[in-house]
Amino acid sequence: MSSIITFQKSREKNICIPLPFKRFHLCAILCYREVTASTLLERKDIAMASLDGAFRSLFETNMGIRDNERVLVFSDTIRPDETISESDRDRRMRLNATARQVAAFAAQTYGSAAFVEFPATPASGAEPPRELWQATFGEETVAELERSELLAKLLAKQATPDEVAAGREIVLARKEFVADIIIALSNNSTSHTRYRALACDAGSRVASLPHFDPDMFHSSMTVDWQALAARTSRLAAAVNRAEWVRVICPNGTDMMICKKGRQADGDDGLLTAAGSFGNLPAGEAYLAPLEGKSHGVMVIEWGSTYKLDEPLRLFVENGIVARIEGTDPLRAKLEAKFVENANCRNIAELGIGTNEKANRPDNVLEAEKILGTIHIALGDNSGFGGQVSAPFHEDYVFYRPTLTLVMADGGEQVVIEDGRMLV
User: Measured by CB atoms within 10 angstroms of the end CB, which terminus of the chain is less buried, N or C?
Assistant: First the structure.
């Protein structure tokens, strides 16, 4: 079941409470936060109150919050049918608790905020449920999308380009109802969804933190954002001079990524302009490779939050994964996705990490930002310059890469050598 909680700042007691029509949530919210905070202190020795400075930096430095802006924070809950490790269950419970704390902090500090939670989607890249669309775009907008027979198609990622454009017109006609700042603290990513793209089209500034661990507030989120932005910009400019990118790693990865006609952009964590979108923690230059061209071998050693029992070898031909070798359970998961939707085979993204404070390989959100790493994603890339739509987008990180840019005239430039950034 999804729930929507809207907070306002009490003038008398300076505490955050749900608005009257949601008052029945109050006891559950306070008890949940109290129990969760106590558990965290026992398990992780992290007092949630100590994160107030991190929350303030999130809103004021990363998001550039202004007076009277509407904040929406959302998270997801563990579905009963999910099989996950105890460590991942712990992280996801802390993620949900932190999302609630972020919403409460925004309400108390900046005036008002809404919090939405819902059962986790099947995968990153799948559309979030109707309740989140309603909280983000407003009841009238969602009702009009339904009357126009567009919402179901958008939620299933089956809308044609013309139908997506029609949905955009409906959202933009009521853009005054759209949240100004969206903090996405769900475990599964909504970055590569129609929901996120439409929110940005309407001017929302969206920070996506899938798989986030609150400990990151004390590590990769403490980076010098201006220095990171400059480094990321230099790297993106270098990549944009190339037509192909070759990636070689000690584990046997050897990929030729086609960049022809595509633009590399930077994710620098400064999401202050209308329509901005990016990950937090940030720190990467990324692009959507030209479909149908990339080829080679990817050797995957890490999943989203764990090291594989045995590396998988993905053989790439004509821009898609043609076959997989290896026995790790991730193979069966990927092959099931490929059966569900052939677009999940697509080589969707090449990214290059630029955050020197990122260091943990066991969480893809931070791992893909580690300075001198690269990551390659499968599935959807329709939201950042690609042409493939799929209810799936999953990144895999590669360590100690040597990355060579190949120019139109055949010239070459090495920008990373054995994991060391050279630009």
Answer: N
